[in-house]
Every structure is written in structure tokens, then in C-alpha cells.
Amino acid sequence: MARVFSGIQPSGDLHLGNYLGALRHFALDQYEYDCVFCIVDLHALTVPQDPEALARRTLEAARVHLAAGLDPSVCTLFVQSHVHEHAELSWLMECTASVGELRRMTQFKEKSTDQEFVSGALFTYPALMAADILLYASDRVPVGNDQRQHLELTRDLAERFNHRFGATFVVPAAAVPRVGARIMDLQRPTAKMSKSATSPQGTVGLLEDPASIARKIRRAVTDAEVEVRYDTEAKPGVSNLLAILGAATGEDPVELAGRYHRYGPLKADCADAVVALLEPIQARYAELAGDPAGTAAVLAEGAAKARAVAAPMLEKARQAVGLLPR
Ligand code: ATP
Ligand code: LTN
Questions:
Q1: For ligand 1, what atom is nearest to the CA of residue 194?
Q2: Could you tell me the pTM of the whole model?
Q3: Residues 274, 248: contact at Cβ < 8 Å?
Q4: What is the mean pLDDT of residues 199-217?
Q5: 243 pLDDT band (50/70/90 cuts)?
Q6: Distance of CA 239 to the CA centre of its chain
Q7: pLDDT average, residue stretch 85-102
Q8: Which residue's CA is minimally distant from atom 5 of ligand 2?
Q9: Is residue 195 flagged as an active site residue?
């Protein structure tokens, strides 16, 4: 069975973009592939984090994964730092990547601009991501559109390593959904919805109160025209609402556009669809929150399963480069 791997950072509250671009597809993939999903806490540390908040969000993120439908008896769910092989293989990947190619990463440019403190790890971040993926001989990596460039780099690093040291890694492919791969900020529809957005009004949290979700969608920035048309360049706000409604209902955003003649009804339907989509996730999350030990046990078991795959792969890579067996 083909292997799937993906990761989400516990760098803030998970949002609708994370769900439509990634998490939702994890839940579907688990029945079709051998799936490994990871809460990438080491990646979150590349920007300053409050220690208590990081710990809390890591557990919350795991719970959100379970609430979104991941079944730990079917797939593997674990925390990145629980499997130290990630940090170790990351070193070999840093030694495989060039400064030039890391410098070209647009996420680094975006996240380092106007920051008082930029860690070295933010720069080498894609090497850790490559290690995550390559440790599991992953064939397919479900991610939102913003991760395409990191996936390309992962492929280049795998190929370079294999060329230099002999066939070691599987070269993975990105799996980016057709609809929902780039959900935009409701207040700034030219920027992607993000955990680290400047205004919370632009982001819909997966655990947010339905009334608040509906309010944010009703107040989403559109434009001065009245025509409903799917045109991401000329009408980013309206197109984002169509993309969200389309992703939530399984309909095509362009076809949906033909059914609306004003923004009001589009916003109302979009809000209803998002609230209905998130309702079962929120209910299941509330159940899981009552059993923190249960989630911790799932993560411990997940780490053991992950390590069983990761350890031999790390060993293979270590020996390939000439590190003495331990
Ligand atoms: P941060 O703001 O801390 O960078 P993020 O919101 O971008 O966080 P990540 O943990 O980096 O979230 O991403 C987890 C997954 O969600 C990735 O596969 C990513 O591509 C996807 N994703 C993130 N934002 C969006 C979005 N706005 N639309 C669709 N997919 C998204
Ligand atoms: N870089 C990704 C998170 C991430 C990831 C991964 C995604 C870390 N490791 C491995 C897929 C596979 C992000 O910022 N969204």
C-alpha cells in the first residue's frame, strides 16, 4: 500500500484553511493508504513560542486531528519531537541542501520579513520537513498549495542524496486538492488564511463558536461591485467565499457563482455551510477534551508505530553517508 505522510504545526489554533487544504483529506486518505500524520512541534519552534501555549496547542492539535475523523487504529498519529529520528535525519538533509536553494523558499522570505528575531532554524526548516517525509518512504504528501515549493525541494534532496550515496529514499509527490488548497484571509483576501494572521477577524477557527463564524463570514471583505463571479485576480474576496462554499459542499466554485446575483445570499449560504461542516468536528472535540489521558495514549502509541518505521530508515541513511553503525 502506498504511504502517505503529512504534518501540521501546533503554532496556533487550527483554522478552516488547514481543514479544507489538508486535514479533511487526511481523514479520507487513511482508508486508502498507509497514513502517517504528525503534529510538527519542532517546526513550530522555528518562531518564538510560549512554552505553555506550545504544549497546550500540541495536545489540542492532536485532538482536532482525531475530531476531524482520524482513526488511530487505521492510521498513525504522533508528535514529531517524540521520534528523535526526525531531528537526526534533518541534520543529514541540511548537509544535502544548499544555501542557495534554501534562500529561494518563499515561506522563509515571508516569515522572516519585518521580524525582530529570525532563527537559523527558520531558514533550515525545509530540511526538517524533508526529513519528516523521507523517514517514512512516503509516496504521497497531502498539503495545501503553500507547501508545493517545500515538496519540490524535498524531491530534489531525495534525488541528490540517492545520486550521491546510492538508492536510499523514495521520491515523494505532493497531493494538492483541486478546491480548497488556498483559502484566503476573510479580511485580506490576497493573503492566505493563516494561524499567524494579523487580524483574527480574517481567520475561521475550527473550534470557533458558530455565531462568531457566521459573523466573520458575513463581514468578509468583498468589493464595490455586486456581480458574483469566480475570478481570483479581479475579485479575490468573492472568489474566496465561492471556494469555501464549494469546498464545504463539494460543488464547483465557478458553477456556484452562476447561482448568486448578490453577495448577501452567498455569504449567508457560505456561513451555513461552514457551520454545518464544522459542527460534528466540534462535537467530537468536546468529547475528546474530557479525556486528555486518552489522547496522550493515542500519541504514545503513534510514536511507537512511527519509530518502528523511522529508525531503520535513519540507520540506512547514516550508513549510506559513512557514519559508523551504533
Ligand atoms: P502558520 O501560520 O503558523 O504558518 P499555517 O496556518 O500556514 O500556519 P501549517 O501548519 O503551516 O498552517 O499548515 C498545515 C497544513 O495546512 C499544510 O498542508 C498547509 O498547506 C495547509 N494550509 C495552511 N493554510 C492554508 C490555507 N489558507 N488554505 C489551504 N490550506 C492551508
Ligand atoms: N511545513 C509545513 C508543515 C510540515 C509538513 C511536513 C507538511 C512539516 N513537515 C511534512 C507535510 C509533510 C507547513 O508549514 N504547513
A1: 6
A2: 0.97
A3: yes
A4: 97
A5: very high
A6: 22
A7: 98
A8: 7
A9: yes
